[in-house]
Amino acid sequence: MPLSAIALLLTLPAAQVTPAPAEARHPVATVRVTFDRNGENEVTTSGFADLATRRPVTADDPVRVASISKLVVAIAVMRLVEAGTLDLDADVDDVLGWRVRNPAFPDRPVTLRLLLSHRAGITDGIDYVLPLDADLASVLADPGAWDAAHPPGSYFRYANLNFPVIAAVMERATGERFDRLMDRLVLRPLGIDGCYNWASCSDATTARAVVLYRDRKPVRDDHQGGRPECPVTPARDGSCDLSHWQPGRNGAIFSPQGGLRISARGLARIGRLLLRHGEVDGVRLLSAKSVREMIRPQWMHGAGEGLTGSDTEPDAPDSGFMCSYGLAAATLATPAPGCRDDPFGDGVRRFGHAGDAYGLLSGLWIDPENDDGVVYFVTDAPLAPGKRSAYAEIEEQLARPGD
User: Fold this and answer.
1) Nearest in space to 321 (alpha carbons), one of 303, 341, 300
2) pLDDT value at position 403?
3) % of the chain surpassing 70 pLDDT
4) DSSP annotation of 235
5) Confidence of residue 311 (pLDDT cuts 50, 70, 90)
6) What SS3 class is residue 69?
7) Distance of CA 368 to CAs 71, 275, 276, 280, 391, Å?
8) Which burial class, exposed, middle or buried, applies to 198 when counting CB atoms under 10 A from its CB (0-12, 13-18, 19+)?
9) Interval 70-122: pLDDT, tens
10) Which one, of 299, 302, 288, lies nearest residue 368 by Cα?
11) Is the model's pLDDT at 12 over the cut of 90?
């Protein structure tokens, strides 16, 4: 369906947009920003940030962008690597002070490079959304968190749990709380009012939160224009006292794997930073060498073992979704059998990241060859499969509108 038609449908009264089967459902909100190295080119918005108040969505409203959060974490990691605070290839035990080991391969060290590229052997076999008072060392002692069949460095398996470990390493190395560290290293220098979970966002930004929906029912960030009672996952007893934070004890508190709240315009600025090799509008965060290292594939389907989707079955619906991956950066249009990682449908090698959580689909994709990029997100996203890739049909439309 063309974006103009989606926009028209989203202006109808609430009673006319509520009852729709999943395959025919239209998004609650759609935002798309295209950009090049010099700035934004086109901004398209439709629908509502909040159905209850009928507040129209804008490109400045913060939204939980899901796994694009990982790409922004990698920028901060690379800043710490450049500063000599972290080493991509050192055993993370040396920083954490506790062991991160696959029980089946206790002699194989885990490094930041392996964690960032999903080759550490960690799986999502256990819950990675941890309460405030969780102890990550105890969580990782569970054999269910590990791939018992493959030693670290030998296999690609996308797993969210890698990123709480990365956040814990960052905290231990700096002594700073992860959300504040991300603000200092990435968001604030770029003039972006965003946050990982809500503790560090301003009141004004929090009030503009985009509510996430499934089947028109709110599932995340429905705080009626105020602040959430607890900006993180509460402790097991229901309490929410961040003063008990200890560096590196629980890297999951601020959802480094998917909890970044940022506007589409803010994401476009991140995209321009990468497109310009680490510098944007006079602000240099990274060297060009670090950006190249981020996007350089650490694993590619056909050249190394791994899963291209979330399921082990070769004919799973998302098989072929991810076929080339660097340091929290995916590369599209992988020229290998079985790969269906090209929502653009033009064979051009783009890099960036996708997001999928709580009814939201998102994407940040950069085309270095043509010196441009696109950011998009959709809430209460239709689940119709794509026609040319393992991505959803709505993502294919947002990648190349008008197809």
Assistant:
1) 341
2) 53
3) 92
4) P
5) low
6) helix
7) 17, 6, 9, 15, 21
8) buried
9) 999 999 999 999 999 999 999 999 999 999 999 999 999 999 999 999 999 99
10) 288
11) no
DSSP E strand boundaries for 204-259: 212-214, 217-220
Question: What is the number of H-type helices and E-type strands within the chain?
Answer: 12, 16
Distance from chain centroid for Cα 165: 15
The residue count of the chain comes to 403
Q: Residue 288 — pLDDT band, cuts 50, 70, 90? A: very high
Give the alpha-carbon dihedral of 62, 164, 375, 287, to 10 degrees: 110
- Cα-to-chain-centroid distance, residue 3: 24
DSSP string, 341-358: --TT-S----EEEEEEET
For CA atoms 208, 244, 109, 173, give the dihedral sign.
Answer: positive
**Which amino acid is present at 208?**
R
Residue type, 22: A
Nearest to 106 by CA among 158, 141, 157: 141
Q: What does the pLDDT average to over 147-175?
A: 97
Classify the C-alpha dihedral 218-61-279-374 as positive or negative: positive
State the Cα–Cα distance between residues 64 and 46, nearest whole angstrom. 17
CA dihedral (151, 155, 156, 157) positive or negative: negative
Consecutive H or E run containing 82: helix 68-82
**CA distance linking residue 53 with residue 63, whole number of Å:** 17
Residues near 370 by beta carbon (within 8 Å), at least 6 away in sequence:
348
What is the pLDDT, as a whole number, of residue 402? 63
Task: Give pLDDT tens digits for 249-287.
Answer: 999 999 999 999 999 999 999 999 999 999 999 999 999
The one-letter amino acid code at 1 reads M
Amino acid at 238: G
118 Cβ neighbours under 8 A, 6+ residues apart: 156, 157, 158, 159, 162, 299, 325
Beta bridge partners of 35: 40, 373
Cα distance between residue 33 and residue 267, in whole Å = 9
On average, the pLDDT of the chain sits at: 92
Helix (H) or strand (E) holding 74: helix 68-82
